[in-house]
UniProtKB/TrEMBL annotation:
It comes from Stegastes partitus. Keywords: Meiosis. This is Protein ZIP4 homolog. InterPro entries: Spo22/ZIP4/TEX11, TPR-like_helical_dom_sf, TPR_rpt. Coiled coil: none annotated. It holds the Pfam family SPO22. Gene3D superfamilies: Tetratricopeptide repeat domain. PANTHER family: PROTEIN ZIP4 HOMOLOG (PTHR38487:SF1), TESTIS EXPRESSED 11 (PTHR38487). The gene is TEX11. GO terms for biological process: meiotic cell cycle.
Length: 816
């Protein structure tokens, strides 16, 4: 609400650039001020209080200028300075700082009291106005510079009373000219005093000619001295104040007198002040063409000495106000002309921030007029004058976007660096604490509107995020994800990069959401939308690591939603898929990198079990998920060499309808470096048994026997034991029976493998002088030859000779 109030106020301020105030502007100020007071915090800061006072006093003044004193009173009463005054006096800062701030507060208080007095006069409450003015008089010792202001206000009250024929009250206010005696240095000039005295004389005579004749004559005598002002070399300030006073009563006379003043000071540097006032008065009264002629005359005859710094500053303000008025009505050519007038008064090569601001304004006009090259020239000058201004870099960025110049769009980096420092006010606008963030947000909008430059917009939003609080960061993260999501969903060469970017944004969103003040409904709405990450995970088949991360993120985002059965099932599936992906990554990773993947997989599996317990407590029907979880947990623990694998295997075997392929997968999971041969063989034996129980068992293609033999065969001398050989022999007998049952279906290479391993075992036993066993195993190998297919002839040629040689050696060995 505070930001809305400030933006509305700034809008009203920028629209009000001349002497008239439209109903629209009154309404904007009224609403902005009311809105700011509605959102007042419990313990407002000094900055907030100052904004409230500024807006309330200005709004009250606006209503007063528009002849609505009742409405003005409401806002003037809101402009209470007590809270600010108390806050200042309670500070522990240096005495000088506190005194300075208190002086500012007292000056503001005098302005508010005088406005309340004016409102009272307008409503006919003369006595109430007297009370307010008396309080102002009491303050003049502390704010002496307002002496002239208060004197002129009392004079105006006197004029008002005279017009409504309240001569007694008029005389009272006009007698207040002696306020100037409190501080002669800041008292009104003699011309003003003469005007007051003449009117006072008139009031006396019309009120009671006989009773106040002497007072009237005294006042007239004093006033006549003003006729000698110009002849007596009165200062230009005195003469110009006289012009302003005359303008209230006789506009024609005022302009004539102003011309006389300009001619009188023609050879003096002070003439500039008179010229500037002439321009200001012409523009205030809608005489724009005459005003332009005056400005062009000054430019033509400008020598560098004609205008004082004060007059030049005032002229720049007038010119910029006119330019802003035309800019706001989209009359950019006219706005540019007024900015160019201002530029004419800067010297070549001059360096100052105001010139940079002017060039930025000119560049904005050029851009809207589609004059890109001229805009670039203006911004180049702005960079020269004030390169370390965030507004200058913002203008550089705007031009870069229009040119689709990626390198120049790096101005965002400079803006990010400059945003670390406080942002100064630009023109007359109130600059809020997050002004830099507003600029970055606007940068993103410009990039998107200009040919959809999404990468540049994304970079701008990242800068916004770095300069925002957590609540705003959530909205920005949502924008970033929505910006990158379409690119991440399309398969292309940049998918890898887009997925990384998207993943970082979603993680940021998930982290911020835990610390935000979002309502439960808001959390649910956004979290459900972002469960699109599930679809992203499924689309990442080529990138298993990202697939796993997106599944985990989908689970984490779902935690922001109220739990129900459907949500729990979705969470369990996310974790199950994440575990499966981690195991897949482990299988493809070098041994040194497997531990982390296995540990992550185990964490996801254990979380799945916990969710499963919650589901079962609500009478959830059994499903195949438990079997998968046991399988995944067994693999993870086996490869981590966790002794709990035996317990997991028992849990698998206890399942009602355990499948043979599950047990085969468990055996596969125990391949080196996860080596649990006894458990592996136990699983394989059960799997083989289950295969045999099938209505149409396909044992010929079953890998159980192969793996059992492979695990059981002795690999060295130390493993050759009778019970080991007996176990392997039984597996071989089983293999022969399987081959005999389906000779055409059994793979030939598998038969050759069985033959070779049996023969090698026989040779190993022969080397150990275990001749009977050696003859037995070599004979077993020979029995497989007849089951070979295309290789049978080759082995029938070679093997009998080798077998005969072995038998001969065995006979000799037995005899020896």
């Amino acid at each position: 609400l505070e930001q809305c109030a400030i933006q509305l106020w700034n809008w009203a301020v920028t629209k009000n650039v001349d002497a008239t105030i439209s109903d629209n502007q009154k309404a904007k100020r009224h609403v902005a001020c009311s809105l700011l007071h509605c959102c007042e915090p419990e313990n407002p800061t000094e900055g907030v209080i100052r904004k409230q006072i500024l807006m309330a006093s200005k709004t009250g003044r606006t209503w007063l200028d528009c002849k609505n004193p009742q409405m003005a009173d409401n806002f003037l009463s809101l402009a209470s300075l007590e809270a600010l005054y108390n806050q200042l006096t309670s500070k522990d800062e240096g005495a000088a700082d506190v005194a300075s701030s208190k002086a500012d507060v007292e000056k503001d208080l005098l302005r508010i009291l005088s406005s309340q007095a004016e409102s009272a006069i307008t409503q006919g409450n003369n006595q109430e106005a007297v009370v307010y003015i008396q309080r102002c008089k009491d303050m003049l010792l502390r704010v002496p510079k307002d002496t002239t202001f208060l004197s002129l206000m009392c004079y105006n009250f006197g004029v008002d009373m005279y017009h409504v024929r309240k001569l007694k009250d008029s005389a009272f206010w006009l007698q207040s000219y002696d306020i100037g005696k409190m501080n002669v240095k800041y008292a009104p000039g003699s011309d003003v005093l003469a005007k007051i005295l003449r009117l006072l004389a008139t009031v006396y005579l019309e009120w009671d000619c006989q009773g106040f004749q002497d007072k009237a004559l005294s006042a007239v005598s004093l006033a006549n001295k003003l006729n000698e002002m110009l002849e007596s070399e009165a200062s230009v300030e005195v003469c110009l104040r006289t012009v302003e006073l005359l303008m209230c009563d006789d506009e024609v006379l005022a302009f004539e007198y102003l011309k006389s003043v300009c001619q009188h000071f023609e050879s003096s540097p002070d003439q500039g002040a008179a010229l500037v006032l002439h321009i200001e008065l012409l523009l205030q009264r809608g005489k724009e063409l005459l005003g332009k002629q005056k400005i062009e005359d000054i430019i033509t005859h400008y020598t560098g000495k004609q205008l004082t710094p004060q007059a030049l500053t005032k002229l720049h303000v007038i010119l910029w106000d006119k330019a802003a008025k035309h800019f706001d009505t989209s009359n950019y050519s006219e706005a540019l002309q007024w900015y160019n007038y201002s530029l004419s008064f800067f010297k070549a090569g001059q360096m100052e921030p105001n010139l940079a601001r002017l060039q930025r304004n000119r560049a904005s006009c050029f851009l809207l007029l589609k004059q890109l090259e001229k805009a670039k020239e203006a911004i180049k000058e702005a960079e020269r004058c004030d390169p370390d201004c965030i507004f200058t870099q913002f203008s550089v960025y705007k031009i870069a976007v229009q040119e689709n110049n990626v390198e120049k769009a790096e101005a965002l980096n400079a803006m990010g660096r400059l945003s670390k420092s406080p942002v100064a006010s630009e023109d007359r606008l109130l600059v809020s604490e997050n002004a830099a963030s507003c600029l970055f947000s606007l940068s993103a909008q410009i990039a998107l509107e200009q040919s959809g430059q999404k990468d540049t917009a994304r970079k701008a939003l990242e800068c916004v995020c770095n300069n925002s609080d957590d609540e705003d960061k959530i909205l920005i993260a949502l924008c970033l994800v929505r910006l990158v999501l379409p690119a991440a969903e399309k398969p292309d060469d940049e998918l890898d990069v887009n997925l990384d970017i998207l993943l970082s944004y979603v993680k940021m969103l998930q982290t911020l959401s835990h610390h935000s003040h979002m309502t439960a409904e808001q959390r649910t709405e956004e979290a459900n939308w972002f469960r699109k990450t599930w679809n992203l995970a499924l689309s990442c088949e080529r990138y298993p690591d990202r697939m796993r991360d997106f599944f985990v993120l989908s689970y984490q985002l779902s935690q922001l939603c109220p739990p129900d059965r459907t949500l729990l099932m979705g969470q369990r599936t996310c974790l199950l898929m994440a575990a499966a992906t981690s195991l897949e990554l482990c299988r493809k990773s070098p041994h040194s990198a497997q531990i982390e993947e296995l540990t992550q997989a185990l964490e996801h599996i254990l979380m799945c079990w916990e969710i499963g317990k919650t589901l079962k407590a609500s009478s959830f029907p059994a499903d195949p998920t438990d079997s998968l979880l046991l399988l995944y947990e067994f693999e993870a623990r086996a490869k981590l060499n966790d002794p709990k694998v035996e317990m997991i295997l028992e849990s698998v075997l206890e399942l009602e309808n355990v499948e043979a392929k599950v047990l085969e997968a468990i055996a596969l999971a125990m391949e080196p470096p996860a080596h649990f041969p006894l458990l592996c063989k136990k699983a394989l034996r059960v799997a083989l048994s289950l295969h045999k129980k099938q209505p149409q068992p396909d044992l010929a293609h079953c890998k159980c026997i192969h793996t059992l033999i492979k695990l059981s065969l002795p690999s060295g001398v130390s493993e050759v034991e009778a019970h080991v050989l007996k176990e392997v022999w039984d597996y071989y007998v089983e293999a022969l029976s399987i081959i005999a049952a389906a000779p055409d279906d059994f793979p030939e290479m598998e038969t050759l493998w069985l033959l070779t391993r049996a023969w090698n075992t026989g040779i190993l036993l022969y080397s150990l002088a275990q001749y009977p066993e050696a003859e037995k195993w070599c004979g077993l190998a020979m029995s497989f030859i007849r089951h070979l297919g295309s290789l049978q002839e080759t082995y029938e040629t070679q093997m009998p000779g080798l077998y005969s040689e072995i038998l001969d050696r065995l006979d000799k060995a037995k005899r020896n």
